[in-house]
Structures are given as structure tokens and as C-alpha cells.
Design brief:
With 235 residues, the chain is mostly helical. Helix content is 49%, strand content 7%. It is built from nine helices and three strands; from the N terminus they run ααααααααβββα. The longest helix has 20 residues.
Length: 235
């Protein structure tokens, strides 16, 4: 038993001791031989000791007498004090511990196996962003020998250099591309009717100018910049 001390084995709860020496040894083996990660071992040991101490306080005579209702009641009480991930970790600790005790023939069934934990849903809405090299590779890969290619390069360039939403880029009209103080500007229509005007990066200036001039869109100021055309550009 002294050789187990460096692995920080938890103290054996009274409820386990009441089930006999075999149960006590199996309990210790779960934390020393079965769990290698020290952080998991500490978290599971804390959950097991708190649960079994609670069982003792409500009159459960032995670990073999623990029932699903005991686990469910303890988990339900924990949901009122702890966040869902912490409660789920505690339930996982009990499930693994009792699985180990079942395979060691200490208890007949796993009382935590049928208990459901709190629901926890994580939604991630972060949009991946291209780094500069990826953006350059994308723009350079577009075939600009067609009207569609010139349009795609101009619209993708608009989103890359202005961080415009795709809806704002597709909704931009020819008159939203204009010259001010000898620089090309774009006007974007954002959500809620808001308009945002900004000067163009020199690359975006090149892409938009090439598209509008070579596809001959300037004669239709109200026309959409995203108008589709598959014809080859004028030489």
C-alpha cells in the first residue's frame, strides 16, 4: 500500500470499506492503475469521494447498495450549484468508477449508467479568415480571360480588402464605385439600411476598374456589379 502513495491515491471512503477489502483494493486500483492522467485522477477522486460521503449521510449502508436514484438525486442537486460541464464531468467519474467496480465483481450493476446528465450545447460561430498568402493565392488563381472571372476577382477582392459581407458585396451597384479626391471609393449597403463608404486598396482599385471597364458596365449606374456574364472580355 505504501508504494501507491506517490501516485496520490485517494483515501478509501467508509462506504467502500464497508463492502470489504476486495472492494477497497478495487477502488484504489481504479485511480492508480486505470487512470494515468493526474488531472483526471484528481477530478474523478474528488467527485467519487463527495458522492460517496453524500450517500453515507443519507443512510446508504454500502457501495453495493447504491441505486440509480441516489446518483440521480446527487446529480440533480449539483446542477443547481455547478455549470453543466462540471456536472457532466462528475457523472462521467461515477460511470467510469462503477463500470470498474462491476467488472471487478464488487457491485452487480452500474447505478450511474442509466442517469442522464444536464444538456450542454456549444455553438461556435467564428468564421475562418484567410491569411494574406491564402488570399493572394485565391485571387491569383482566378481566370480573368472571361467576364465571369473578372467579376469574381473584383467581388472576392472587395470582400478581402474591405471585409464586406457577401450580401453587401453582391448588392453593390455600379454607381457605388466612384472616384473621390483622385482615389477610387466603394459604397457598401450594410444591414439595417446603413451605408459605409471607404477608399479602395490599390489592388481592389485595379480589380474593380478592370471589371467595370472591360465588361462595359459603366453605362448602367444602377446595375448590379455582380451581374453575371460569361462572355470573353474585350481586348
Amino acid at each position: 500500500m505504501n508504494q501507491l502513495a506517490p501516485i496520490a491515491a485517494p483515501a478509501v471512503p467508509a462506504l467502500v470499506v464497508a463492502a470489504g477489502e476486495r472492494a477497497s483494493m478495487r477502488f484504489l486500483e481504479f485511480f492508480t492503475a486505470n487512470i494515468r492522467n493526474p488531472h483526471t485522477r484528481r477530478a474523478y477522486a474528488r467527485a467519487a469521494q463527495e458522492f460517496l460521503a453524500w450517500c453515507t449521510s443519507v443512510g446508504v449502508p454500502s457501495i453495493a447498495a447504491v441505486q440509480p436514484v441516489h446518483v440521480a438525486t446527487w446529480i440533480e442537486a449539483a446542477t443547481r450549484e455547478l455549470a453543466a460541464p462540471s456536472v457532466k464531468q462528475r457523472l462521467a467519474a461515477l460511470r467510469h468508477l462503477f463500470d470498474w467496480l462491476v467488472t471487478g465483481q464488487v457491485v452487480p450493476v452500474n447505478p450511474a449508467g442509466s442517469v442522464r446528465g444536464p444538456r450542454h450545447v456549444v455553438t461556435t460561430g467564428q468564421t475562418p479568415v484567410l491569411d494574406p498568402l491564402e488570399a493572394r493565392a485565391l485571387l491569383d488563381s482566378i481566370d480573368t480571360l472571361t467576364h465571369a472571372g473578372l467579376r469574381d476577382r473584383a467581388l472576392i477582392g472587395l470582400m478581402v480588402y474591405s471585409f464586406a459581407r457577401i450580401g453587401a458585396a453582391l448588392g453593390m451597384t455600379v454607381e457605388d464605385v466612384y472616384t473621390q479626391n483622385r482615389r477610387l471609393w466603394v459604397r457598401l449597403r450594410e444591414k439595417g439600411g446603413k451605408r459605409h463608404a471607404m477608399p479602395c486598396h490599390h489592388n481592389l482599385d485595379e480589380y474593380l476598374t478592370a471589371y467595370l471597364d472591360r465588361v462595359a458596365l459603366r453605362d448602367d449606374p444602377k446595375g448590379r456589379c455582380s451581374a453575371r456574364s460569361d462572355a470573353a472580355p474585350a481586348s
